[in-house]
């Protein structure tokens, strides 16, 4: 407590005001903690919710497991409006990134922002505890380090999520030409488009389980009555493969008109294979540029030390005499 009051005094230069500020912060923290505990208890021990959870499950063991998960979900629902941003644009952007990364649960966005808040709080207390062992630091430096750590904890989950989404989109894009080849073969073998899509989803699962799962979702939606164009559009939105919009349009037109899709799918398969090869060649062309940094930082210093070091030592000895 004295340490926190000392930190506050570095900002206000008045011991009495620092004590009042500390008491105010302590009161706000106590109120927030009490509200959180109240929300957790009300969600966990509400008689109505317990009754509904009991009715909705058949056996006691499964009821206990699912009830714990349901209570956790209800807790997230209760704090959803407090931790998610009010901007619809930001929510849609994060939700799209979560879908592209493979997190399609409706509570994924709430979990994401809950993780961000936990990281910010952890960073705040970690810096305070860490600076406790460095008394030479001034209050201004401690404040700067705290804000810097909280900023990193705020933006780090977004960077990690974008990286995960980008890697998943790349994996799907690399596996899609093979799926398209299988779709051409099955369509020309006489299967209808829905049956061919289901067969491709099962076969491609050995190469790319993620793409197989996405294609299976498309097939299930079509079987329950979702129109094929809508299911394929949702597939593009989930996976982030927006380069498939033209293919989806052509498939939709072929399904509506009953035309053969073999030639069209074959042309698109060749095009997507060419794109995959171009991406591989582009990555290979970048290797020379990427190797500059390890060469400069790791290999060249040792090479110059071995090649020029003895000559420099000899010159220094001559001048020293």
Automatic annotation (TrEMBL):
Entry's localization field: Cell membrane
Record field: transmembrane: 20-41, 108-130, 142-161, 292-316
A GO cellular component entry from the record: plasma membrane
Superkingdom field: Bacteria
Topology in the lipid bilayer: Multi-pass membrane protein
Domain Type II secretion system protein GspF: 180-307
Cleaved signal peptide residues: none
Protein name: TadC protein
Keyword Membrane: yes
InterPro entries attached to this UniProt entry: T2SS_GspF_dom (IPR018076)
Any single Pfam family the record assigns to this protein: T2SSF
Keywords: Cell membrane, Membrane, Transmembrane, Transmembrane helix
């Amino acid at each position: 407590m004295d340490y926190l009051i000392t930190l506050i005094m570095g900002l206000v230069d008045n011991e009495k005001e620092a004590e009042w500020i500390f008491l105010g912060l302590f009161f706000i923290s106590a109120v927030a903690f009490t509200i959180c505990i109240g929300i957790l208890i009300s969600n966990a021990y509400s008689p109505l919710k317990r009754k509904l959870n009991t009715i909705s499950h058949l056996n006691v063991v499964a009821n206990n497991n699912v009830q714990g998960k349901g209570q956790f979900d209800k807790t997230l629902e209760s704090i959803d409006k407090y931790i998610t941003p009010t901007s619809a644009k930001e929510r849609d952007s994060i939700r799209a990134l979560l879908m592209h990364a493979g997190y399609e649960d409706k509570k994924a966005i709430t979990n994401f922002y809950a993780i961000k808040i936990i990281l910010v709080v952890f960073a705040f207390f970690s810096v305070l505890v860490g600076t406790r062992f460095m008394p030479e630091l001034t209050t201004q430096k401690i404040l700067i380090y705290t804000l810097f750590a909280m900023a990193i904890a705020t933006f780090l989950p977004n960077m990690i999520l974008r990286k995960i989404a980008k890697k998943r989109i790349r994996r799907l894009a690399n596996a899609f030409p093979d799926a398209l080849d299988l779709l051409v073969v099955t369509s020309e073998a006489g299967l209808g488009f829905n049956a061919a899509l289901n067969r491709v989803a099962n076969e491609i699962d050995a190469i790319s389980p993620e793409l197989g799962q996405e294609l299976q979702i498309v097939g299930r939606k079509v079987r329950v009555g979702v129109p094929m164009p809508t299911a394929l559009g949702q597939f593009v939105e989930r996976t982030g493969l927006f380069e498939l919009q033209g293919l989806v349009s052509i498939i939709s037109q072929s399904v509506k008109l009953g035309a053969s899709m073999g030639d069209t799918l074959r042309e698109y398969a060749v095009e997507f294979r060419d794109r995959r090869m171009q991406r591989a060649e582009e990555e290979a062309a970048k290797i020379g540029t990427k190797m500059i940094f390890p060469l400069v930082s790791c290999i060249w210093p040792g090479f110059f030390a071995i090649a020029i070091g003895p000559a420099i030592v000899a010159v220094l000895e001559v001048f020293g005499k």
